[in-house]
Design a protein that fits this description.
43% of the residues lie in helices and 20% in strands. It has one domain: Sufe protein. Chain: A (Alpha-Beta Complex). The chain is α+β, with helices and mostly antiparallel strands and 127 residues long. It binds FE2/S2 (inorganic) cluster (FES). FE2/S2 (inorganic) cluster binds next to helix 2 and helix 5. The site of FE2/S2 (inorganic) cluster has 11 residues, from helix 2 and helix 5.
């Protein structure tokens, strides 16, 4: 069996939603101390819905694929649902990641949550 699924390779080669949202109202940045990879998520939240999402990931292919998939999973969703996003759901949507690459999907879950925390802090709205 190939190490990476076709979906992982696709999202690594053609990542969705790469970039910056200049007027984002929720930004989360996380890193993994062991591998040194960094992920930054920008969300534009309006009326409790993630209207737009962009990310910058300086990291491995699995981290890029995970952020791309996470961005697709949360776009257009209510924040209450976005808060429930798990790294497992990201990895499953990518048709799996090798065991030693699961931490890359954890980074995506953490980046989304960090952005939601930032939103709560800025607006006083609890999610
Ligand atoms: Fe660390 Fe992928 S190797 S995020």
């Amino acid at each position: 069996m190939a190490l990476y699924s076709e979906k992982v390779i696709d999202h690594f080669r053609n990542p969705r939603n790469v970039g910056v949202i200049e007027d984002a109202n929720a930004v989360g940045e996380v890193g993994n101390a062991k591998c040194g990879d960094i992920m930054k998520m920008y969300l534009k939240i309006e009326n409790g819905i993630v209207k737009d999402v962009k990310f910058e990931t300086f990291g491995c292919g699995s981290a890029i694929a995970s952020s791309s998939m996470a961005s697709e999973l949360i776009k257009g969703k209510p924040v209450s649902e976005v808060k429930k996003l798990t790294n497992k759901a990201v990895a499953e949507a990518l048709d799996g990641l090798p065991a030693h690459k699961m931490h890359c999907s954890v980074l995506a879950e953490e980046a989304v949550n960090a952005a939601l925390e930032d939103y709560s802090k800025k607006t006083g709205i609890e999610i």
